[in-house]
Design brief:
Number of domains: 2
Number of strands: 15
Number of helices: 18
Radius of gyration: 23 Å
Bound molecules: pyridoxal-5'-phosphate
Largest sheet: 7 strands, mixed
CATH class of the largest domain: Alpha Beta
Strand order of the largest sheet: 4-10-9-8-7-5-6
CATH topology of the largest domain: Aspartate Aminotransferase, domain 2
Oligomer: single chain
Shape: globular
Structural class: alpha/beta
C-alpha cells in the first residue's frame, strides 16, 4: 500500500495542539532571525528531522540487533546495524554502541563499565574547560568515583606534565581527554603514551569536535585512545543522542571491552533505545561521510579563525589568543571580573546567542564567570563564510564595549536587583537594537530551512 506523505510541515500539530504549534513556530523564527553561536548547537538536516519524527518512535527494541527481547524488530535491526557500521567506518573504530540517550549517560556508562565505585578517575577540571561528567563534584561521576582533575597551564593549554604526574602517582583507572570549552587541538598522542605507561584507560570525549574529526579538520583520537564517546548533535549535526566507540587499541588492552560497554548501556543503565534517534544518527553519519561535509568541517575552522582574528583586531582578548577548532573563548577580565553575564544578555538583545563561561583561573564564580564562549558550527551550516565573520566580529566587539561598564555588586542581595535593572536597560538600548536589525538583515541572506513553512 502506498502511503501518502504529508508535505505541510506541522499541519497536524497545528490542529491538535495550537499551544505547542505556536511555541515551535516561534522557536523556528528565533533560529532563523538570529545568529546561533553556542558552540554545542547546530542545525540538523531536514532528512535527520524526518527520521527523528518518524514511526520509529513507536517501537520497543530492548537488546541489540539480532538479540532483541521483543518481536517485530527486523526493520529496526536494519536501522541500528547501518548506524553502527557507518560509525565504525567514519571514526575508524572496531565497535560502536549507538544507543546512549545522550552524552552524559554515555560517559557514565563508560565509567561504570571500566571502574568500581571509589576508583580514581582524572579529567580536565570543569572551570578549565572540562565537562561535568569527567568528575566534577556536583556530577554523579565526581561522587561515585574519586576525581583527581588536571588543569590547563597559565597559557590556556592542557598541562600534560600534570596529567603525567597524576597518572603515575594516583594511578587513575580512567583518564578523560575532551572538553566543552577548549579551543586547541587535543594532545591525544601524548596522553596515549601516558595512559600506556600508567595502565589507565584513555577515553576521548569528542562531543564537541566529532564533526571536525569526521571531516578531517581535527586529528582523530582513534589510534591513541581505548574508548571514544561523543554526542551526535553538536558539530556532527545529527539528532540529540550519543555513541560509545571502542578502538582497536581498546580491544587489545581488554578483549571484553565492547561487551562490557554494551552490557552497561543495556540492561545496566537503559531500557529501550530511541530508534527514531538511531535512524537520525545513521543519516547524520552518512551525511558526514560526504565530500560536502569535509568542506563544511574545514569552513567551520576557517570561520572560527577569521572571527578570532577580527575580535582580537578590535581589542578583545581570547584565551590562548586564538583557536584550532570551532570555538572561541573570550576573556573579559580586562574589563573587570564576572562580566560574562552582562555580555551574554546584551548579545541576546542584539540577536547573537552565546553563553557565559568560566575561563582558566577565573577570578569570579562559575555562576558569574568572566568569559564568553562562542562557536561557528551553526552559522557555518547556514552558509556564512569569512566575510560574514568579520562583520559579526565587529558587531560583537561593539556589544562588549557597550556594556563593559556594568559592574556586578559584591553584595549577593544587591545582585538580583542590579541584574534586573541591567536587563531592563539593555532591552531599551538604542545601539543594541540597531545591531539587532543588522543581525536580522544578515540572517535574511542565509536562509534556514527555506522549504519549511509551518
Ligand atoms: C555536550 C557534552 C557532553 C554531554 O552531552 P549531553 O548530551 O548534553 O548530555 C559530554 N561531554 C562533552 C565534552 C560535551 O561537550
Amino acid at each position: 500500500m502506498e502511503v501518502e506523505v504529508r508535505t505541510e510541515w506541522l499541519s497536524e500539530l497545528k490542529k491538535t495542539d495550537p499551544e505547542m504549534f505556536d511555541a515551535i513556530k516561534k522557536e523556528l523564527d528565533r533560529q532563523r532571525t538570529g545568529l546561533e553561536m553556542i558552540p554545542s548547537e547546530n542545525f540538523t538536516s531536514v532528512a535527520v528531522m524526518q527520521a527523528s519524527g518518524s514511526v520509529l518512535t513507536n517501537k520497543y527494541s530492548e537488546g541489540y540487533p539480532g538479540k532483541r527481547y521483543y518481536g517485530g524488530n527486523q526493520f529496526i535491526d536494519l536501522v541500528e546495524k547501518a548506524a553502527i557500521e557507518r560509525a565504525k567506518r567514519l571514526f575508524g573504530v572496531v565497535h560502536a554502541n549507538v544507543q546512549p540517550y545522550s552524552g552524559s549517560p554515555a560517559n557514565m556508562a563508560v565509567l561504570l563499565a571500566l571502574c568500581k565505585p571509589g576508583d580514581v578517575i582524572s579529567g580536565l577540571n570543569l572551570t578549565d574547560g572540562g565537562h561535568l561528567t569527567h568528575g566534577w563534584k556536583t556530577s554523579e561521576t565526581g561522587q561515585l568515583f574519586e576525581s583527581v582533575p588536571y588543569h590547563v597551564k597559565p597559557d590556556g593549554y592542557i598541562d600534560i606534565d600534570e596529567v603525567r604526574r597524576i597518572a603515575m602517582e594516583r594511578k587513575p583507572r580512567v583518564i578523560w581527554v575532551g572538553a566543552t570549552a577548549y579551543t586547541r587541538e587535543f594532545p591525544f598522542e601524548e596522553l596515549g603514551k601516558i595512559a600506556d605507561e600508567s595502565g589507565a584507560y584513555l577515553v576521548a570525549d569528542i562531543a564537541h569536535i566529532a564533526g571536525l574529526i569526521a571531516g578531517g579538520a581535527h586529528k582523530s583520537p582513534s589510534p591513541y585512545v581505548h574508548v571514544i564517546t561523543t554526542t551526535t548533535h553538536k558539530t556532527l549535526r545529527g539528532p540529540r543522542g550519543a555513541m560509545i566507540m571502542v578502538t582497536e587499541k581498546g580491544m587489545k588492552k581488554d578483549p571484553e571491552l565492547a561487551e562490557k560497554i554494551d552490557k552497561t548501556i543495556f540492561p545496566g543503565l537503559q531500557g529501550g533505545p530511541h530508534d527514531h534517534t538511531t535512524a537520525g544518527i545513521a543519516i547524520a553519519l552518512l551525511e558526514a561521510s560526504k565530500p560536502e561535509f569535509r568542506q563544511y568541517a574545514q569552513q567551520i575552522v576557517k570561520n572560527a579563525r577569521a572571527l578570532a582574528d577580527e575580535l582580537m583586531k578590535n581589542g578583545i582578548k581570547l584565551v590562548t589568543d586564538g583557536t584550532d577548532n570551532h570555538m572561541l573563548l573570550v576573556d573579559l577580565t580586562q574589563f573587570g571580573k564576572g562580566k560574562g553575564v552582562f555580555v551574554q544578555d546584551a548579545l541576546d538583545v542584539a540577536g547573537i546567542t552565546v553563553n557565559k563561561n568560566t575561563i582558566p583561573n577565573d577570578p569570579a564564580s562559575p555562576f558569574y564567570p568572566s568569559g564568553i564562549r562562542m562557536g561557528t558550527p551553526a552559522i557555518t551550516t547556514r552558509g556564512m563564510k569569512e566575510a560574514e565573520m568579520r562583520t559579526i566580529g565587529k558587531l560583537i566587539a561593539e556589544v562588549i564595549n557597550e556594556v563593559k561598564g556594568y559592574e556586578l555588586p559584591g553584595d549577593k542581595e544587591a545582585r538580583q536587583e542590579y541584574l534586573k535593572k541591567f536587563k531592563a536597560e539593555v532591552a531599551e538600548n538604542k545601539k543594541l537594537i540597531e545591531i539587532r536589525q543588522k543581525v536580522s538583515e544578515l540572517c535574511s541572506h542565509f536562509q534556514l530551512y527555506p522549504d519549511i513553512n509551518p
